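Q: What does the predicted 3D structure of Amidohydrolase family protein look like?
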Amino acid sequence: MMKFLPALMAAALCATSALAQSPLAKPNDRSGLFDGKTVTSNDLRRVPVVPGTNVPQGAIVIRNARLFDGTGAAARTADLVIEGDRITRIASGGEAPAGAEMIDAGGRTVMPGLIDLHTHLTYVHAFGLPGPVSDESQAGAAIRGAERLRYFAESGITSVRDVASHGMAPFLLKNEVASGAIAGPRIFAAGQLIVGEGGHGTEGYAMATAPAYPDAAVREAIGPDDWRKAVRTNFKRGADLIKLASHFSQEEVNAAVDEAHKLGLRVTVDSESIYTKMAIDAGVDSVEHPLPRSDETVKLMAKKGIASVPTFVPYQYILAGGGYNGSTSRRFTLSDESIFAMGAKLKAAGVKMGIGTDLIVDWHHHLPDAYIQELRNFRRLGYSAPEALVAATRTGAEILGMDDRLGTLQPGKLADLIIVDGKPDRDIEDLKKVDLVIVGGRVIVRDGRATLPPRIEEKAPFSSSKE
């Protein structure tokens, strides 16, 4: 037996090494635990809810639509019926549900709402503002987020993936939007960005970070156990996904991805060079930004079905302003040539790519052009106009993990759609003319301006007209 021991030990070491290098499991899929009748929340947590939760009353019928449904099919003429928060029928003619609001599209394009996969709803208005108290206060964060929601909504964006915001603010905003209390797109929130000490977003003490400031948008974690704890904290607060950033060790990123996947959450990462390869080995689900990585890493992304959200537009803004300077997490050349060379490699390899804008500070004031600019960037990579719109809708829903409910206009899907005065599948510039936006059966934009449903005055338990 002794003579076989070295061989057995070597085999065990090889097996352990192979396990460490193999991707970890994908997010835990609990769909098989539901009977098909149980109603779950319209987010990535899929929590059982009381039927009718956040579902508006009544129906809407859109007549004479030029329907671009996001499936890849050509636009066609159709009517669309919405009952509650769902699309129930797409067909010309037919009876309208009793009491339905009738909207005549008049040949305008009806299409799925746009999805922005990289947002920061509560980001500070400008760098260098006084102290962490003003930047990290939950009141200030929520107010900043509410303002940004209007810009996204009026630009035809009906879902945003928020990939780092302050404390509980993004989750509170998400709940208020879902209930119809404030007008805005659906919010899929990651909570705090999880990063190693001194990693992206923490350089030079540029921003306050947790745990020193618990409500900060960035959480510095040290060691695998602390990375797991950071994931659990975000999950406890209400996270729909987890966002990581380099720098990290292989053990740290492995721990974070493993913990998130066990909880059923997808993981995206902001990383570069060797760290992107480490994140892919850990099994992340998507990679943000057009940052340097090896050709081998790009091939691994394609092989393992890891998506990309390239976010060209913020780098164009940064480069126009002089460059990404002073950052220890950006120690490489960034140029127009470098970011589009990476985008071309990702497209050539067959990596699934979605639209994200990463509009920090006051850049949301550039909407809708900022979103359209990202579509122009996809056109520059060789996408046709319809293909770019599919990337903005169906593919975005796939990367989110919400394609069973969002991204295309089909019976049974959630009623998230926009009416555009033009033909954006022929000319994406027509997206500047969004007239009407519906999220979950609620009209939140009319005539290009955010709106709320009429208030409902409820009878008080006691009132008196006597003076």
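A (community wiki): The structure tokens above were generated from the sequence. The CA atoms of residues 16 and 237 lie 35 Å apart. Residues 1-23 have pLDDT under 50 and may be disordered.
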